[in-house]
Design a protein that fits this description.
The structure is a single chain. With 397 residues, this protein is an alpha/beta fold. 33% of the residues lie in helices and 28% in strands. It is built from twelve helices and 19 strands. Strands 15-14-13-16-17-19-18 form a seven-stranded mixed sheet, sandwiched between helices. α10 (280-290) runs parallel beside α11 (311-328) and α11 packs across α12. The N and C termini lie far apart (70 Å). The structure holds S-adenosyl-L-homocysteine (SAH). S-adenosyl-L-homocysteine binds at residues 210, 213, 232-235, 237-238, 253-255, 258, 279-281, 300-302. S-adenosyl-L-homocysteine is lined by residues 210, 213, 232-235, 237-238, 253-255, 258, 279-281, 300-302.
Length: 397
């Protein structure tokens, strides 16, 4: 029987009733507190999961360090990990072929949402950038399969690894630096929605650009007009898209290096955009005091709520930003307001914007209630895969 073969080959882990219920409910994680102590199981192992009565629940990756001890890989026995990984990567690529349009930059693999927990792969034109988030994905044997399949499927000019030292530390993995895994190219130019961007694989945040906003850039550009302000503009994602429609565009960010790239991006597209290096909160306060007015304002701050604990503070932060933006918008203006904090629900986020509208006596019509681009799939039953909110509203008196 398959089950017996499997249990001889890979270690078994027993999960508590609560953990088993979580898996039955469609989730793919089991927390350490729901794992019956698993002494002697090597970090990053492929494991067979059973409930307390010995019933097989699935095959998973085990982490000896993370609070997320178990990440489900399959609800079936897995006899050949390599074949499964290769198939999942090919499926992830095929999914993008169906849903991604007008871009040569998009996320190819989004961890749990592509049933490849712990692996993120982004494509920027001919350069592929990957991130490894777990012990299991860091195993040399697994890395070799991932690289080989990405090569077979995409034939990129280069594959680069981006390392987040904090994640490696949490997973108790030896430190490692970002670098080229294959090929030589580390820079390229990519385009989305007809707008061009510089990409430097070894610089910048995340794996490079904020690909999850790609569809929101195009949506925002549909409504944008007049004088526009892109607050938290990073390398100019929104600002460059708005420039097609607006008479004047200003981008604000506290990071000088991000603005330098933003400026190069503007030149690449033949656009004139004003970039201001400032703390957005201070700048908006000053602008409000001087009565500055805009027709389009974008707010795309970093995640304010890193955990459930500071949710209230985060909501206050969003409220303040939205209040200030609304005060500056002329009647008929467009507010594009984003939040990438997973802990802030879409309902909470809209409530905060509504409240801000009430406080400044503006009416807001919700034009679009958006989320992350489809190359960052949301796996229903795994709420953690849905994190980005982007509300586009028409403001009137
Ligand atoms: N809108 C961007 C992504 C923004 S990410 C895009 O689509 O590409 C958040 C940005 O906020 C980062 O570039 C970061 O440098 C900037 N930032 C963080 N805190 C800030 C602050 N207090 N004032 C201004 N910018 C800030």
């Amino acid at each position: 029987m398959a089950r017996r073969t499997l249990s001889r080959e890979i270690p078994a882990i027993t999960v508590s009733r609560r953990g088993a219920q979580r898996l039955k409910d469609g989730h793919v994680w089991v927390y350490r507190s729901d794992v019956i102590p698993a002494d002697g199981i090597p970090p990053g192992s492929l494991v067979a999961l059973t409930d307390e009565r010995g019933k097989f629940l699935g095959t998973a990756f085990y982490s000896s360090a993370s609070q997320i001890a178990i990440r489900l890989l399959s609800r079936e026995p897995v006899e050949d990990l390599e074949t499964l990984l290769r198939m999942r990567i090919r499926e992830a690529i095929a999914y993008r072929e169906g849903v991604v349009r007008n871009t040569d930059a998009y996320r190819l693999v989004f961890s749990e949402a592509d049933f490849l927990p712990g692996l993120i792969v982004d494509r920027y034109n001919d350069v592929v950038s990957l991130q490894v988030l777990t012990q299991a994905m860091d195993a040399e044997s697994v890395r070799a399969v991932v690289l080989s399949e990405l090569n077979n499927s995409l034939k990129p000019a280069a594959i680069i690894e981006r390392v987040d030292p904090k994640i490696r530390e949490l997973e108790q993995l030896p430190s490692r630096s970002s670098g080229v895994l294959q090929g030589e190219k580390t820079t390229t130019i990519f385009s989305m929605n007809g707008v061009k961007f510089h990409f430097d694989a070894l610089k910048g945040q995340k794996t490079g650009a904020f690909l999850d906003q790609r569809e929101n850039y195009a949506a925002a550009a549909q409504y944008a007009h007049g004088e526009a302000l892109d607050v938290f503009c990073y390398q100019g994602g929104f600002a460059l898209h708005l420039a097609e429609r607006c008479s004047r565009v200003t981008g604000v960010d506290s990071s000088r290096s991000a603005l330098e790239v933003a400026d190069q991006n503007a030149a690449l597209n033949g656009r004139e955009i004003e970039w201001i290096e400032a703390n957005a909160f201070d700048l908006l306060r000053d602008y409000a005091a001087t009565g500055a007015q805009y027709d389009t304002v974008v707010l795309d701050p970093p995640a304010f709520a890193k955990g459930k604990k500071n949710l209230e503070t985060a909501l206050r932060g969003y409220k303040e930003l939205n209040l200030r933006a609304l005060k500056m918008l002329r009647p008929g203006g467009i507010l594009v307001s984003c939040s990438c904090s997973y802990h802030v629900s879409q309902a909470d986020f809209l409530a905060v914007i509504a409240e801000a509208g009430r406080d400044v006596h503006r009416n807001l019509r919700l034009l679009e209630n958006r989320t992350q681009a489809k190359d960052h799939p949301i796996l229903l039953n795994v709420p953690e895969t849905a994190y980005l909110k982007c509300a586009i509203a028409l403001v009137s008196n």
